[in-house]
## 1
Amino acid sequence: MKKGIVFAAVAAMVIAAASTAMAEPIVIKFSHVVATDTPKGMAADYFKKLAEERTNGAVKVEVYPNSQLYKDKEEMEALQMGSVQMLAPSLAKFAPLGVKEFEMFDLPYIFTNYEDLHKVTTGPIGKKLLTMLEPKGLLGLSYWDNGFKVMSANKPLRVPADFKGIKMRIQSSKILDAQMRALGAIPQVLAFSEVYQALQTGVVDGCENPPSNLYTQKMFEVQKYVTLSDHGYLGYAVIVNKKFWEGLPADIRTQLDSAMADATIFANNIAKEQNEKDMASVKASGKSELISLTPEQLAEWKAKLLPVHDKMAGRIGKDLIQEVYQATGFKK
Ligand code: LMR
């Protein structure tokens, strides 16, 4: 009798072990719109590696770069519907979800450098913003850096008067719309995947990008001038479908959280250097002429762009803007 029980127990264990070994891995589809050799692309691949290693293959991360699976707007919908599980959209793309506060990151000149930015993204303000995603069925896991933007066009953009009447591609952010209008340009929202062709065919005249995007999308090949304006920041929030994430076994979630924490350190360590390298590659290509602003020209840009903070305070929240000023020590 005893022998029979032991045999049955052993058999049950063998069957359980075999079925675990055969169990399908949990698949995380991670969709993004940039190239693999960008800060976001490399960090997504690094997260995949760590996640698969730390879960011993119980999780499989499928990374779909370059808008292969979804373009900007569709990927947000896909995440909410559960067709993909993870995204890292730029902070300029969160307002259509109903969280306009993220557009604070788009305010021109609000961050002078990465250090100031990190005072926000790694502090209570960053945390508070991510919490605002929960009622939308999303969880914000981390902020990943990209960089400070340059302006490009087929004419030199040295002073605001140079922007008069030119069509500039923007991401879907009302702050970026106000920014371009303040300079005298005509903003046009386009999905990231459509920008190269729009520049090439003259649908738009210019755009703004961190160097890594300008370079890896080859936009510099169809833009004769690049102004090193550093007039605003572009970075990301890594987001997941809340129901999916909270439904994961606790041990798996812990392993994934640790993979994300390390992928975030990685992302934020490589972003600045990668952008500098890509700007150097644009320069070396000889296809675009790089323009640096004189102090007088920079003062003209700021005179036009800083008023955007007050103008758009009603949309983002005056208090939030003040909190950011306090956290970074920003002064107009
Ligand atoms: C853009 O649309 O310009 C960026 O948000 C693309 C990206 O993900 O860096």
Note: The two ends are 84 Å apart (CA to CA).
## 2
Amino acid sequence: MPTTTWNRHHVLSLADFTSAEYDTVLQTAASFQEVLSRRTKKVPTLQGHVVANLFFEPSTRTRSSFELAAKRLSADTLNFTAATSSMTKGETILDTAKTYLAMGTDIMVVRHREAGVPNAIAAEMNRLGVRVSVLNAGDGQHEHPSQALLDLFTICSLIDPNHPRLELLKNKKIAIVGDILHSRVARSNIWSFIASGAQLHLAAPPTLLPKLFAEYILEHSELTTGEFIISSSPSSPTPQLFLHWQLEPALQDADFVMTLRLQKERMTAHLLPSLREYHQLFGITRTKLQLCKPNVKVLHPGPVNRGVEISSQLMDDPEFSLIQSQVTSGIAVRMALLYLLGSGKS
Ligand code: NCD
């Protein structure tokens, strides 16, 4: 394992992650990626530890990925599903968490459709003075840190498989396209990509951009491409965050394109004329990728609506698509997070 300093007790958001913490996660994940390529893919690191997956919202890849990651580290795993739990009998979220605490849980991996639930559980664990770590596996429209970290690892280890690190993304052009308004993945990605020094371009119809960004667009309706600038340091002369309500300027010379699912379950109003029109204007296809750098790569956190945000053909094209590699990277990155949170406790 790389020698690292890690003082974080919970992983709830990437907003306050330091460059050193990103690099620690990337390097630790790289060592676990190596373990996963061996014949025996298991290490005894978290033997005797209990990891509880508290998923109050449906999930395929995140939940399976955390479960496999915990098992590869030899932890014991508990799996909770809201629909088949005592919550249907009126038990509160905090009482459910305390039940898992009483069983000796060391790490709680929490997903909930309301923003802030993992923070509330972490605050309760702190209040009780117990050494239980909480890992946010996606809360409402707030954040999804482990997904953004696996996206970061997928990209950085493509550039330098032996030594993935944050600085590899400096000045790379990354476009995030689609339903940014409802995306907790994008909200975490924005922190990590800005921290890396990448040029981040967000492209979406104004109805699918966060309110602050959409208001900026309305105020500057004379522009054809918005430019909302955030620099990593106030003295930095290079703008880092650009907003577009047309796809083409975001794709122009991009190194990486991340497309997002239209999250219909979180939409409270009709925000789009039709899925067909959305695909025409914002769907990523082989033809549209011609605007990007020749070796551009495409990412998607999944689950994918084929033929809506990305064409079916492109999704399956190994020359461009990193979608399967994101899923694979997810196990090593989640092993890294569980290891970093769990290794301090025994
Ligand atoms: C994302 C999520 O649940 O936020 N998926 C994931 O965790 N891989 C994105 C989505 O639901 O579209």
Note: The longest helix spans residues 323-342.
